[in-house]
Design goal:
alpha/beta; Spore Coat Polysaccharide Biosynthesis Protein SpsA, Chain A; Four Helix Bundle (Hemerythrin (Met), subunit A); seven-stranded mixed β-sheet; 7 strands; elongated
């Protein structure tokens, strides 16, 4: 099978703040990184369990990931292409087909439930179908396979596909079906949020020694009530004015973030997003809006990373969560004045 098949692992590197950003408010930057590292180790073990060629495309420094490769296993290490997720997948598949592998699977590092048997089934499906997908429970998918090399050379295959949410599978099927037959395997699930981390740990899919325990502050926390009480004592009758000033500023910053993320991606836009998140983080921290501040820190870290263009989906998701968190903080603060 080695001469005919390849498995591609698409992963971010181990740079803090770039991966599992949805977990940062609950686990902190280092905690989210520890989850990512544990997921990558498991993915490398899964992808190393067959006699197929292994090709790892990494966004970031590949050296720490090389150190996680099981002993005696060989892999080809390649950078990820620039562009959105659809283009990065297409480029990796084209690269593998171009290297002489007629049947190719591509997976990410987020699906701890994926097994070597799933990969075997995916490769077997490619003897009967042009493409294969393993759906995810959230409407995305965790595996994409191809036995159709010509599909990936040329114009973007996934033009218009909405990744990072519940439309990814349906949109990708609409893009692939005109190009050939598509098989679907049994659904699996990704590790995206804290509940998923706990599910993976409970099912023995993640090494609990590598994954941190939940911090005292979790995603349900809105205010640092001790800090708010201290500010009320210090400010006295001026505390309501402080709250109103914060609420006006937070609303303006959210409008700025929405406008920036809706614009075209470039270096100036990315820096403006980072600065706006930094400003809202500071004012939120000063007033004890801890969840808003934590989400701003996560967004700031994403936009300050070495390649923020690879994190557009993370930025959109964090801004959506910021809107909810700011509304919660506004309601909680308004009740105090």
């Amino acid at each position: 099978m080695t001469d005919a098949t390849a498995v591609i692992l698409l992963s971010k590197g181990f740079e803090p703040g770039r991966a599992k950003t949805r977990l940062i408010p609950a686990l902190g930057t280092e905690g989210a990184l520890a989850v990512h590292q544990a997921l990558v180790r498991r993915a490398l073990e899964t992808c190393s369990a067959g006699d197929w060629a292994l090709r790892c495309h990494v966004a970031g420094d590949p050296a720490p990931l090389r150190a996680c490769l099981p002993s005696g296993r060989e892999a080809t290490w390649l950078p990820q292409e620039c562009g959105d997720l659809g283009w990065r997948m297409q480029s990796a598949l084209a690269s593998a087909h171009g290297a002489g592998y007629p049947r190719v699977l591509l997976v990410g590092s987020d699906c701890a439930a994926l097994t070597p048997e799933d990969l075997q089934q995916g490769l077997a499906a490619l003897t009967r179908s042009d493409f294969v997908l393993t759906p995810a429970e959230d409407g995305g998918y965790v595996l994409l396979g191809s036995a159709q090399p010509s599909a990936w050379f040329g114009a973007p295959v996934f033009s218009g596909a909405r990744f990072g949410g519940c439309h990814a599978l349906a949109d990708s099927l609409a893009c692939l079906t005109p190009r050939g037959s598509v098989a679907q395997l049994a659904a699996r699930w990704d590790v995206d949020d804290l509940a998923d981390v706990e599910r993976a740990r409970n099912e023995g899919l993640l090494n609990t020694g590598l994954v941190p325990e939940r911090k005292r502050m979790n995603t349900a926390d809105v205010l640092d009530h001790a800090l708010v009480a201290e500010l009320r004592d210090i400010m006295g009758a001026e505390f309501p004015m402080l709250v109103q000033a914060y609420l006006r500023d937070a609303g303006a910053r959210l409008e700025e973030l929405r406008a920036l993320v809706a614009g075209g991606a470039d270096a100036a836009r990315d820096e403006a997003l980072r600065r706006a998140a930094h400003t809202l983080k500071g004012s939120s921290s000063n007033l004890g809006a801890v969840r808003v501040a934590a989400l701003c820190a996560a967004l700031e870290a994403v936009m300050a990373g070495p390649d923020p263009a690879h994190s557009g989906g993370d930025a959109n998701r964090l801004i959506a969560e910021l809107e909810d968190a700011t509304a919660e903080a506004s309601d909680a603060l308004a009740a105090l004045v």
